[in-house]
């Protein structure tokens, strides 16, 4: 796992440098909204590290690597490179993957709170689904607030009404269901598979 640890550290450095490099041109232009989007990737990349240090969460390096890959495609490619505005389906794919990620993180939280029990299948599944819906809702609230402050339209309210917001939450829920299915297969077959590997170093 030391190799994965180093890969994570390199990925954090790369993401941070990309954020700084891409922030410089828009900073010169005085576009502070775009500067904020580009520089926040640095904080976003360090979230697992900060969670370990300040909240003492036990997050496997494999889980962190999956998270960093998601940040690259979601934050850098989607927001900084502007692919969200170029390919409509890309936004929905990322929101689906966010549901996968939050469902997996729900299990990590259960483990850290010493509430995780592999044999409590129904409780674990319900927690994953409810946690994903909660995070999806909080994210949409964040986007709504951000749009109101910066007079932006990340939620595409001007063009789709509430359709974009609702679809984002629905596909995130779908992502959590995908994890639930994989979790169910591992549970009923009593196998230590993909999800087990993400939860343990």
What is the element layout, followed by pairings?
Elements: H1 2-29, H2 32-45, H3 47-55, H4 61-80, H5 83-86, H6 88-112, H7 121-150, H8 157-160, H9 163-189, H10 194-199
Please sum up the structure shown.
With 201 residues, the chain is mostly helical. It has helices at residues 2-29, 32-45, 47-55, 61-80, 83-86, 88-112, 121-150, 157-160, 163-189, 194-199.
Any overview of this molecule?
The structure is a single chain. With 201 residues, the protein is an all-alpha fold. Helix content is 83%, strand content 0%. α7 runs antiparallel to α9. The relative contact order is 0.11.
Keyphrases for this structure?
201 residues; 83% helix; globular; single chain; mainly alpha
Element-level helix/strand string: HHHHHHHHHH
The largest sheet, given as strand count, sense and whether it forms a barrel, is: none
Shape: globular
Helix content: over 70%
Treating each run of at least 4 consecutive H or I residues as one helix, how many helices? 10
* Percent strand: under 5%
Q: Which residue ranges are poorly predicted, with pLDDT under 50 across at least 5 consecutive positions?
A: none
User: What's the rounded overall pLDDT mean?
Assistant: 90
Q: Span from first to last CA?
A: 6 Å
Task: Indicate the structural class.
Answer: mainly alpha
Q: What's the count of strands? A: 0
- What is Rg? 18 Å
